[in-house]
Write a structure and sequence with these properties.
Layout: E1 2-8, H1 11-27, E2 32-38, H2 41-44, H3 61-68, E3 74-78, E4 90-94, E5 103-107, E6 121-123, H4 127-136, E7 141-143, H5 149-157, E8 163-167, H6 168-173, E9 182-183, E10 198-203, H7 207-214, H8 219-235, E11 243-251, E12 254-262, E13 267-275, H9 279-302
Parallel strand pairs: 1-2, 1-3, 6-7, 6-8
Antiparallel strand pairs: 3-10, 4-10, 5-8, 5-9, 11-12, 12-13
Helix pairs in contact: 8-9
Length: 313
Amino acid sequence: MILKIGTRESKLARLQTDMVLSVLAQARSAIDFEIVALSTSGDKVLNKPLAEFGGTGVFVKELEDALLSRQVDLVVHSLKDMPTDIPTGLCLAATPARDDVRDVLVSRNKLSFDELPAGSRVATSSRRRAAQLEARRKDLVFVDIRGNVPTRLRKHDEGACDAMVLAAAGLLRLGLGERISEYFDPEVCMPAVGQGALAVECRLDDDFVRALLSEINDVAIAAQVTAERAFLRKLGGGCAVPIGALAATCAPGRIELRACIADGERLVKGSVNGAEVQAERLGQQLAESLLAAGGAEILESIIKRPSHPISLP
């Protein structure tokens, strides 16, 4: 039997797909897998900020279309790229791995964030990162940057910016950990929902593939990301809004969810904990709490705010 796996074309996406393939091969060695690389709109359109795409799922839509048209049998995503609303007929079937969840700084001369000179240009594609870090250093200039990780690093090295903020997991998976100048504590820069986690999506009616993927699903990771995604879903947020959330196991069968809503001037944050089986409700509960504490006003204002200028291609 041959199963086709859809993935984005980037080196990081292919590495992540290979990670999932390795786990699948251990679970079912008799199955052969064929990789189908696809380009998404987020990969093609690099001259405008993600927040201006007018929707979510810019890195997953083409992969999901391939699933629905039965060109592929399953697809591998970075979970943080997946919208909380999954198309009818598809399901998030497995979260097999989660690496370092933190954001990191890459800078010239390995300067830390606090050591960056006033006026330094700090590049990031994330309003979430910019909003939290701008609140700590209002003397820095934040610019939007696009492209895969190697492209962003090249832009940095060529002088398009003085520093940039990226996800630790991507750099580490690419073997580029030596480029990291500083790891941000989640209390300083709360990660994106699902950051560091891999996700495998398939058709809801494909019982064979769903059963296969259930064998590689990590139940603890699934509970964490369920809480985070429930929080995000309740807020109705995507890449255009500065929302961070992180759940972690705090005791056997229990998780703690921390989250924030920020706009560079205001920051609302909180936490909640409870049983893993209540993950969905925990996310909803924390979202309701933060909305009531001022998060609703932040979200209303930030959506109207223009994006940071984009860096050179």
